[in-house]
Please model this.
Amino acid sequence: MTSRSDLRGALRAYRLWRTHPDIVFTQSIDAHVIGHGVALRARAPHVAAEHGGAGIHRGTHRTLAARLVAPRVARVVAVSRSQLPDLRGLGYREERVRVIPNGLPPLRPVRDRSEVRRELGLADDDVAAVLVAVLRPEKRADRFVDGVARAHSFDPRVRGIVVGGGPLLDEIQAQALAADSGVTVLGQRTDVPELIAAADVVCVTSDVEGLPMSVLEAMALARPIVATDVGGLREIVIPGRTGSLISAADATALSEELLRLASDPARRTAMGEEALRRFNEQYTLERMVDGYVALFSELLDGTVRLA
Model:
């Protein structure tokens, strides 16, 4: 489907029932609606994946569509326990929810950290914080720019890097250029692992989150995390061990934490090492796949009702 009103695309998708699937797996509300029709016609269990953070805004259309499908799916996959109240509110049955956190394979940057830092204009003693996100309102990249700018005014070694495109890209670029913020906005990039490895801290400044991939990438690359205390972030960031959780309502919290980390390289290293250890225990690709294998096996044993 090229858009929600693409009826030809919707019909092509619906005709997938002719492949006689054993399971129909969907992500995003339009896919949930059409996928449920496919599942009913094929008499196959329907699994819906919901990756949105707790409190994420849904328009009227999306809310009504979700409430139509939610009570009828065989299973729904969440990436964080923080999503459970929202999922119940949409009508998903609690006993059908399975929490399977995202996972990643090992990340191996192909370019040297020092080379990437030189390209970014970072000095050896600069402390670089990076934000990787699609620049939508809920990601609050403006909060990141403000926090870095405040820290940079106290300690010029603190620098910021924004990675990602999106509807607010021009606005965030203008904000970063408006003053001596110490923030560079790179836009969309394909070398995210290299950029994270070149940084010293990874930040998430969102108002709403499920389980952001940038945090898992930070952990896989042994980087400490500074994140707002929202959604699933409190499940993966352990304050004082793998990073820090800050209040979204505290305008100075980010800058204060960046200044603390800038003055304590040993603490940054220790947090990064603990983050990597926790990643290897809980957030590998293999662990995620095991979760889906268990779920699909449960559905294929023939005892699940297709209600």
Q: What stands out?
A: The mean pLDDT is 93. The first helix runs from residue 7 to 14. The two ends are 27 Å apart (CA to CA).
